[in-house]
Design brief:
The protein is mainly beta and 252 residues long. The chain has a domain of 149 residues. It is built from 3 helices and 13 strands, in the order ββαβββααββββββββ. A 7-stranded mixed sheet has the order 1-7-8-10-11-12-13, with no helix packed on it. A 6-stranded antiparallel sheet has the order 2-3-4-9-6-5, covered by helices on one side. Strand 10 and strand 11 form a beta hairpin. Helix 2 runs antiparallel to helix 3. The protein is globular and about 45 Å long. The two termini are 23 Å apart.
Length: 252
């Protein structure tokens, strides 16, 4: 049971530096005449220019970056945690109709799964003029079983730099928003999603909780625990009227 938020960072569409239009490989495009001796300096400073940088991340995270994607297929809301390169490759293969598959592949390839995880959040939208927006990312401490309110205490680390609180949970909040109200879009059901890369300062947390609000106000939530890289989720979907139904999903 989660009880105390130790770190909260609010995000909005304006807090993300949108550079999805920037090509994954910009060899020579941004080079200057006086930088001929060091053509890779920019790449070393910014090895993964694909996606949106999360400008502020909570304590315990070293970095965060996200990438939107779309598919012409329709499907139910989905939250999936990818903890290793093999599972991420399978996830991409299962979504062969992604419109920016090359950028997604580059994004995945740049992920260090020793220190990072990927979280995919997706849902249907009535037109392609929608996207999933990451609205908040937090790290919450779980409730202590001894009733001494230890969850409200500051986080501590052991000699290896790992968080002493083993009950911490990475929490993501996202929603499907229309990209432009005045934009004309074909009425075609589209799957819209966002891939979130979270890089930890030490070993990745084993529990991830996420909620995704659909374009119609319905809410999908999932909490996933992981042992040795595997994860399972028990999710509840609630409509805007407050009723809900349980759904089961899993990923490996």
């Amino acid at each position: 049971m989660l009880c105390t938020t130790t770190t909260v960072v609010g995000l909005s569409a304006g807090c993300l530096a949108d550079d999805t239009s920037q090509p994954a490989d910009d060899d020579g495009d941004d080079a200057t005449d006086d930088d001929n001796s060091s053509p890779t300096d920019n790449t070393e400073n910014n090895p993964d220019p694909v996606g949106d940088a999360i400008e502020d991340v909570p304590d315990g995270l070293a970095d965060g970056r996200t990438l939107t994607y779309q598919s012409s297929t329709s499907g139910e809301p989905d939250i999936t945690v990818l903890r290793d390169a093999d599972r991420a490759a399978e996830w991409l293969d299962e979504r062969g109709s992604l419109r920016n598959a090359d950028a997604v592949a580059t994004f995945i390839d740049a992920t260090d799964f020793e220190m990072s995880i990927l979280v995919s959040l997706s849902d249907e939208a009535p037109t392609p003029c929608y996207e999933v927006v990451l609205e908040a990312i937090t790290i919450e401490a779980g409730e202590s079983g001894d009733g001494d309110s230890s969850a409200s205490k500051p986080k501590t680390s052991d000699s290896d730099g790992r968080n002493a609180d083993e009950d911490e949970t990475l929490v993501l909040e996202a929603a499907v928003h229309e990209t432009a109200e005045d934009q004309v879009c074909a009425q075609t059901i589209t799957t819209v999603g966002r891939l979130v890369r979270v890089t930890f300062e030490s070993e990745p947390l084993t529990t991830v909780s996420a909620t995704l609000v659909g374009h119609d106000g319905s809410t999908y939530g999932a909490t996933m625990g992981s042992d040795s890289g595997s994860a399972s989720a028990s999710s509840t979907v609630e409509s805007e009227w407050g009723s809900g139904s349980d759904r089961q999903s899993s990923d490996s």
